Each structure stands twice: as structure tokens, then as C-alpha cells.
Amino acid sequence: MNILLINPPNSGKSIPEEQYGIDGIKMIFRGEPLALETLAGNLDGHDVAITDLKAAPESLWDDVERLRPDLVGITGVTCEANAVLSIARDLKTHSDPIVVVGGHHASSDPEFFNREGIDYVVAGLGKRSFRELVDALAGGRPADGIPGAAGTDPGGPLRLTPRKFTDADLVDDRPPRYDLVEQHRDQYVMSGVGGKIGFVATAFGCTHRCAFCAVPNTTGGRYLTHSVDAVMRDIALLGDIPLVRLTDANTFGDVRASEALGRRIIERGWEKKFVADVRSDTVVRHPELFSLWKTAGLATAVIGFEEISDERLAGYNKNTASAVNVRAMEILQDLGIRIIGDFIVSPDYTEKEFTALERFVAAHAIDLPLPSVLTPLPGTPLHDRMKDRITIHDLDYYTFLNAVVPTRMPEAEFYETYAGLWKRFLNLKHE
Questions:
Q1: Per-residue pLDDT tens for 143-184?
Q2: Which of 176, 242, 180 shows the shortest CA–CA distance to 55?
Q3: Three-state SS for 233?
Q4: What are the residue ranges of CATH 3.20.20.70 in the chain?
Q5: Which CATH architecture has domain 189-426?
Q6: Measured by CB atoms within 10 angstroms of the end CB, which terminus of the chain is less buried, N or C?
Q7: 381 burial class (0-12, 13-18, 19+ CB within 10 angstroms)?
Q8: Is 40 in a helix, a strand, or coil?
Q9: Using CA atoms in the order 139, 143, 148, 154, what is the torsion angle rounded to 10 degrees?
């Protein structure tokens, strides 16, 4: 089959900009479409291409005309879900390929895509289930009953058989097709870290169940780790790219595997820098692991501190405490590892909470603090808890920069305060 995999364009709307003329707080995704590169890696025997509309927004129809795909796969996070629908409908009007949708939003709310213009939905880690679906369609066999995939039935229920994810779903022996986006490589950079960057996955899923996070939906709640050999292979495939972003939600969730990987990287002698998402409690429990990884090249740790209030942390089911966050910062700073700190600004914040957060950041010299607005994503425990409060249901606004429930402060004041905090955080210079 001729298969085209599509990464949607940067999507999302901004209440601060649209309603209050506040700009400068947009988050732009600039990374390569690793999910699609990974899917493509397991589609040997088929002709596969990737259209990255974040890197080349006007390229879709030229690629469709050139490739004439039999099947199109589209991925997307929640704020891109409407863009995915639009692309699917346009494709059906233009050339009527088989359209399959997957990605984070499909994994959290697969019923959302049970609509005209979409033929199949793949929920969760799709490397194997998408291949099984493709093979069934290519062979003229029924595609019903494939775990993790379902044919759509607009107006009826989506009959999705859940997949019991295992290490086999990683298809460890099939590397990502980095070559399919080589023409865009110079555009893949990471703001706040600098330099051309490549993406590598060491694990999928997470060891924890934070109330706001949709990541566990991708693996049925399991934490699955690639072999050290597979990760080393993928890093090597990136060639001379100096900066490697480990894309896992929790890179060091398996401490023993992480230690083995760090030692192999040191033995290999790469002069590369790594960026990884870590939990603060992992840093505190295993400081020796981060000392090892500093030698291996860990330059920046991204930590979801989320809150400075233990009560709010408990409400998010974060299973950590503010004191643990502070201790993790001290350990990483002593090692010379930069810290990107993610914080959640609740719509319930008043001036008091904004001020407290700013003082906390100033006191602890976080290299790049990033405040996002609490957003109850469909399919998460937080959404179940807050759904009766939600007043904005247009997913274009689910960018983590908009309040989709009413704010406690007057809305204009909330956004003005938030924008000011955001801009001051981005301008911080720590010695």
C-alpha cells in the first residue's frame, strides 16, 4: 500500500489574545513527529511517507498528489483534534483514501473520532495494532476485532477492543524512520535549550497516575521500556545531531534500565547532550543515577513540579511533596544539570497564589520555569472530576494556556496576571 502519515499543523486558539489583546504566551511545537516515524518503522513492505505540517504547513496537497496514498494515518493531541477532523474530511473530498486516526487524543477519547471522514481509530501505542490493521486492509481481510483498533460507525458506538499492551507492542527491533523527515531536520529545535535536536524514546507510559495526565491511556496504565540496544541504535541513527530529547513522560521510571543505558552511553563516548523528563522523587531517591547521567551527557532535566502547595499536589495525585521538589532541585543544581520546571496555574488562583509561585521560583533559581493553565483533558481523572464546571468545550482551546472552567479572579485580570508571570519567567537569568 501507499501510506501517508500526517502530523497536523500547529493548532489551538488563545483567549488571552482573542479577547484581551494579550500575546506572547503561545507554545509552539517544534519537534519532529517521532510517533509517526515510529509507526513508519514497522511498515516494511509498504511505501510510506510523512507529511509534517508543523514544519511545512503548505505541503499537504502537493504530497497527496505526488504519492496518491491508499491509506492516510493522522496523529494529534487534544488541541489538534479539530484540525485532524478537518484534514480527514478534506482528504475524503479530494481523493477518498482510507483514513485512520491515532495519537494522544484518540487514545484518551476514541469516540470523538467516530465521525464521517474517518474510517478507523487506533487507540494507544499503535506500532503493532496499526501494522495489523494495515496488513488486514492490504490483504482484503476483515479488520474487525483487532485489539486497539476499530472501524468507525458514525451515529452508532465505536466497537473498540482494548489492547493489553506488553513489551511486544514496542516492536523493539524496528527503528524509527528518521529519514522520512530529513528535509526538515534544521527546523527541529528546542526553545530554552538551543540547538538542533533529535527525538528518541526509551519508554512509553508512566509509573504514576497523576490526575491531569493522559499519558497512561497510551499503554493501558503500563510502563514499557525499550531495550538498551534499541535506544543506543536510535541515538546512533540521529548521526551528528548534538542534542537528544528523550521523549518519555518518565525517562528514569526503571532505575536499573536507566543505569545500564547511562553506562552504555558513557562507554560509547558520544559528545551529545541529553534532555529528559524526570520525577523529583526519583532524583531524591537515586542521586547516584543522576551523577552517572551527568557524565553520560544529561544537560537538562524537565521536572513537573506542578505546585508549591502539598494540598494541591495531593489533589493532583502527584505522590510527591514540595520539600521533595526542593531537594531534587538542590541535587541537580549541585551536579550542574539545568532544570526546566513545569508548573500548573489553577483557574482558582488569586493574586496570592500567583505571588507565592513567583517567589518560590525566584528563591530556587529554576533555569526555565514554564507555567501552564490547569486543563482537564478528556479521558483523565481530572476531567471526570471537573466536567460539570467546564464551560469551554471547543478543543482548540485545550492548549494549556486557556482556562476552560471559570476563573476565580475576573477573567481579564487572571490572564493579565498569568501573562505577566509567563513573560517574567521567560526573562529570568540565573547565575
A1: 989 999 999 999 999 999 999 999 999 999 999 999 999 999
A2: 180
A3: helix
A4: 189-426
A5: Alpha-Beta Barrel (3.20)
A6: C
A7: middle
A8: helix
A9: 140
